[in-house]
Amino acid sequence: MAEETIVLRVQRYRPEQDSDPYFQDYEVPYRKDWVVLDALNWIKEYKDGTLSFRWSCRMGVCGSCGMMVNGRPRLTCNTFLREFYPNPITVEPLVNFDIERDLVICMDTFLEKLKKVKPWIIRREVKSPEEGPYNQTPAQLYRYKQFSMCINCMLCYAACPVVGMHPEFLGPAALALGVRYLLDSRDQGWNERMEEVGSHEGVWGCTFVGECSEVCPKHVDPAAAIQQGKVLATLDWFKRWLMPWGQK
Amino acid sequence: MRRPYHRSYPKDWWLRHPHYRRFMLRELTSVFVAYFAFWTICLLFQASRGPEQLAAFLTTMRKPGWLIWHAIGLLAVLFHTYTWFETAPKVLAVRIGEKRVPDRVIVGAQWVAFVVVAAVFFALLRLAG
Ligand code: SF4
Ligand code: FES
Predict the structure, then answer these.
(1) A178 to chain B nearest CA, in Å?
(2) What CATH number matches the domain at B12-77, 1.20.1300.10, 3.40.830.10, 1.10.1060.10, 3.40.640.10?
(3) Residue closest to A229 by CA, chosen among B90, B86, B85
């Protein structure tokens, strides 16, 4: 019996020689237990060593392998070929990012946005190690825990039409992370963080399409984080203007 | 060598997935919310001009064209309401201790409130005769 195969239509772009991206078809062995990333690795190993793509963990934790699979942002390490077999599978780099090479995107814009929300704990009163940790009750932890599960895979950026139309929008993952720190009882950087999170490019840029939460492989629900961020920003605004003496 | 390739965002993005189309429908149906608010102002204005004017206005509103138009509007507003009730749990993460109140409870509570408010409203209308 001839081996079953499936066709991968892969978008290529080699900056040295191609002026525009184009599609290249590869016929790959079909295995029920193969994911799209396995097929790409097979191509790289046996067919075409010039094909570039990013991956690392192969188990949905590193967030490197996000690509457009048949037009949807997916982690290629947990997207099985059997979902599409026998139809061909189109693989493109994540949309809403510039293309570095083949399936590799430029993540510079994303990293800039992440930095803007200051995703670390800001303390005004710093404890020395001898004084012990900053304690937190389980209830305080659960306020933000879900929003801290992000793996920076950027699928939500590819899903978001606002990111596509307004590149300055901070976007789902960065805002979810900003809100995660706003909700953290150990954090004391509320004002400086709110300046970014509560800005026009921040939560107020969001029109609540909600697609970020649909595609998120970690159920971070960035759309929820952003809407809760809008509530926090509104309360903050009232506090600033109605009770300027009540500033923390 | 770095030569990043820039892709422009497609103008027809909202046609490209059912979720995007649904979002557009949600946004467009909000126009009817504004419309009915405006219509209510018109109704109050006619009422302020006296009983005859109000009666004339209401007779016009009973014409089939208006009834069909408002039936479409009602469907649109109900759909809009439905979409916002569904998304409310994302905005209101209600917690009791460590547990989050399930989304269904929040959505359900809104529908209960909706029915109660509507019932009170219609009861008052009845009373007013
Ligand atoms: S929020 Fe979800 S989809 Fe967005 S980068 Fe984080 S893990 Fe990926
Ligand atoms: S390879 Fe790590 S998430 Fe897919």
Answers:
(1) 16
(2) 1.20.1300.10
(3) B90
